[in-house]
Amino acid sequence: MTVMRSISGIAVAALLAGSVAGCATAGRSPADPLEPVNRAVFGFNEKFDQVLLKPVAQGYRAVLPEVVRTGASNFFGNIEDLWIGANNLLQGKVENGLQDVMRVAINTVFGLGGLIDVASDAKLEKHNEDFGQTLGRWGFGPGPYIVLPFFGPSDVRDGIGFLGFDTAADPVWNLDHVPTRNSLYAERTVNSRANALDAVQVLEDAALDKYRFVRDSYLQRRRSLVYDGNPPRETPPAENAPAETDKTQK
Amino acid sequence: MTRTLLSLLLVLFAPVALAQDVAPDVMVKGITTDVLNIIKKDKDIQAGNPRKIADLVETRILPHFDFARMTQIAVAVNWRNATPEQKKTLTEQFKTLLVRTYSNALTLYRDQTVDFKPLHMKAGDTEVTVRSEIRQKSGQPVTLEYDMEKTANGWKVYDVKVGGVSLITNYREDFAAQVRESGIDGLIKALTTKNRGAGSGKA
């Protein structure tokens, strides 16, 4: 736990340092001044995925019946709902926050400890919140885009939210029994990778340059999440803005 | 008797009138229901039969999309500098890419349900967003939004957002970078190569 804390601390410091260093570069996508470093980390993550995570996730999906995998997703989703509720409350969305607490209570008691999502069937919808979104809600901009080793796409704000707060509040990470913690963490990682197999395939079919496509999807997705699906319209650079593409090098 | 005859006539000629006047959300809902029903019944489509999928997409979905406008949004500032010939090729190639990518995605459909949200639209509006939600067995529903424009040929979709991510806007930076590196012809080449590569055996 304390080790985790200090690791998070170092990572946050590194993020901040990175974002300052990033200000020096110019010419690339304005949201991604650290592109060369990010691309290197992205390449590493892709390799890691290709060699280890994806094959394991494929095996996991092939071996386990869908009921079991859904149960696992629900179980981890239930654990996560408490922190989602806390973030809703921190953002002043009291009704949603109370709904999340209700969800945990209902699913834990009536859904076999969270294996069945009975709350969703009872029209108590699952939400998507984390501390990065809470910071966004409080007015913090995303800052430069950052690809974290192993964890993937992030930005300065979300990186701080994730490494500094979400991880610290994660019940799995805080288990004292290390072997249990590690196996649950591994199971959760593999399960969510297995859930993403199809989506990643679509993404690979779609992208000309996967790095850029993932980055821009991430940035759009987070912006949408911070505004709970209703982000204010950005002024479209297509028709009126000056061509930032014309003056850049390469 | 005359009344039944009249309603029969109405039913027969309704499709002609509908194409022009039908409200955008009703239209999207109708297409979605039709397409999902077809997929549900057809084992070949579920198994990924490319010809059947292509046929379904071609007849039921494509007529309602405005690919020229989609391409223009994705190519953004560089659209102005493209020759008519380049614009035509860009549109063709981008259309091929989108159709291929999302046709494959159709085979992933199993038993999710789609809910439509009430449409906010005023009398004279020519641009609307139709919002829907895909509900899955576990986890949060995924939002699916269609940006639509009223044209002489009825309402046409010019952007689709999945979970808040625009499938069209997402190409902007990518396309801009391609043009920056090797011009509009470079972008066309990249698209063509991508389309050709994907045609011969899926990764």
* Spans of at least 5 consecutive residues with low confidence of chain B: none
- In total, the number of strands of chain A is 2
Q: Specify the helix fraction band of chain A.
A: 55-70%
Query: Largest sheet of chain B, if any?
Result: 5 strands, antiparallel
Structural Rg of chain A: 19 Å
Task: Map the helices and strands.
The complex is a heterodimer of chains A (250) and B (203).
Chain A: H1 2-22, H2 35-63, H3 66-90, H4 94-110, H5 118-121, H6 131-137, E1 145-148, E2 152-155, H7 156-169, H8 178-195, H9 197-206, H10 210-226
Antiparallel strand pairs in A: 1-2
Helix pairs in contact in A: 1-7, 2-8, 3-4, 6-7
Chain B: H1 2-21, H2 24-41, H3 43-46, H4 50-61, H5 67-75, H6 84-106, E1 113-116, E2 127-135, E3 142-151, E4 154-162, E5 165-166, H7 172-199
Antiparallel strand pairs in B: 1-2, 2-3, 3-4, 4-5
